[in-house]
Amino acid sequence: MVLISIFLSFLLSNIFGYGGGPASIPLMYEEIVNRYNWLSNAEFSNMLALGNALPGPIATKIAAYVGFGIGGWWGFIAALAATVIPSAAALIFLANVMSKHRNSKIVKGMTLLVQPVIAALMIILTFEMLQDSYVSLGWIQTIAIAIISFALLQKFKVHPAFVIILAFLYGGIVVPHLNS
Amino acid sequence: MLYKELIIAMGRSGILGFGGGPSVIPLIRYEAVNKFKWLDNDEFGEILAIANTLPGPIATKMAAYLGYRQKGIPGAIVSVLAHILPTCLAMVVLISFINVVSHSAVITSMVSAVIPVIAVMLGMMAYEFAEKAVKGLGIYVGGALTLLCLFLLQYISIHPAIVVLIFLIYGAFHFNLKDRILHKKERGM
CB–CB of A110 and B65 under 8 A? Predict the structure, then answer.
């Protein structure tokens, strides 16, 4: 019956987590630490640190870790299914409805008016990332990496994967020496 | 062949996207729009907007939709798995090394050096959306609405989903309203 608790707790924290995976972290904390005591506070922060060190969506990483830790492979599947499936199915359904009426004035107006909101959300996210980077790297490195990657992406049309790997190498090889 | 594209695109963006789901969006967009050309930029923006009104992780929603678009439900499953399985398995495998990994200076610096790159990609996307807003609504209205959204989201801290919803609801009436105003002007003359 632990599988049902796993499924329900991840279902709840993702259904009420508006704003992508990071927004549902506090809700998951509530379920995992306070309600079911699956992890202690310290274990939760350790897991979050590991999750932040790895790429990919954060909500699914937490689900995988806790699901597997509590319920083995079935727990892993239950936690991930609860995290991913409801919102994915809802998007597929809504997007299908919208695309059927793509040429109606109503849908056209909706998709036009949502552009400024997305722009604003992206601007905020950009500044949050720059601030994070300032805290860990300082302004000089942040701006240098930003300018170089902008030039590579925009002017030389380099694949983003390649730019990220370059930054990764720089971070692994150069940054630890600068800080020590 | 399409499955192979889905696996490459979603696998690559899952493994290289640091900073949580929302920061993976520019990578997913690059694969879907620029690299594999499954849909155009406008359509990607529309889907992203709808996805923002729904709860739950954003990256998996986008992965599922793009997979579904290409290959139906099996495509959605393949696409989501390719996006999340590598890192989810890494979480499970690394449980025993958790203290080593989360406190290693080299790994922390590697991740922090990627963040400015992600910031640049998000900034480029922000510019494109703002450009589209200005093109569709005119420089004054488009610019003013973008600033209004920034104000609502950042200073009053209204929840993003609510702001998106308000703009969607107004958007549904936008063209009818515009027509009516134009009609009145014509009659007035």
Answer: no
